[in-house]
Amino acid sequence: MAIKRQIFYSFHYDNDVFRVQQIRNIGALEDNKPVSPNEWETVKRGGDKAIEKWINDNMYGRSCVVVLIGEETAKRKWIKYEIEKAWNSGKTLLGIYIHNINCMKNGKCSMGTNPFEQFKTESGKKLSDLVTCYNPKSSDAYNDIKNNMETWIEESIKNKKN
Q: Residue 125 half-sphere exposure, CB side, CA atoms within 13 Å?
């Protein structure tokens, strides 16, 4: 029986929440519900410290951080914070491009930039050389993610150990 991993999903809420909800509903992984728009607005009103606390509290105890990469994900301040926090905490990181998941409001979007390109390790190596980003099939991105996400996470965990 496969291990149900505890995952923290990092994503651009405003642009990608509908795509992300579809991925979270796959059910192969631990059921962690997306924050509701009302809850997220309350957290945001608390300012940067409240957002940091929310991220830290919700990332705590997670074995893996999956960055769901949409068109503008790499530009987002809090995505950058989550990537840095995950890396510095020794968590496994991986990326999954979600531009080919249909959004009921906006349809598909353009492929975003790899957010790991912006980071370097202490040895000077780009994080994008160490963290795998998966680009699901454009013809059936949802099912490609559904059929492979567990494997991608396990491969990322195994590779991090090596």
A: 6
Q: Which of 112, 107, 103, 93 is nearest to 159 (CA)?
A: 93
**pLDDT one-digit tens code per residue, 79-110:** 999 999 999 999 999 999 999 987 777 778 88
Reading the block at residue 66, the tokens are 């999956």
Are β-strands 133-134 and 7-10 bridged in parallel, bridged antiparallel, or unpaired?
A: unpaired
Enter the pTM of the model.
0.88
What is the three-class DSSP state of 75?
helix
CA 129 – CA 21 distance, rounded (Å): 28
Q: Are 121 and 130 in contact (CB under 8 A)?
A: yes
30: DSSP letter: -
* Domains of the chain (ranges, CATH numbers): 7-161 (3.40.50)
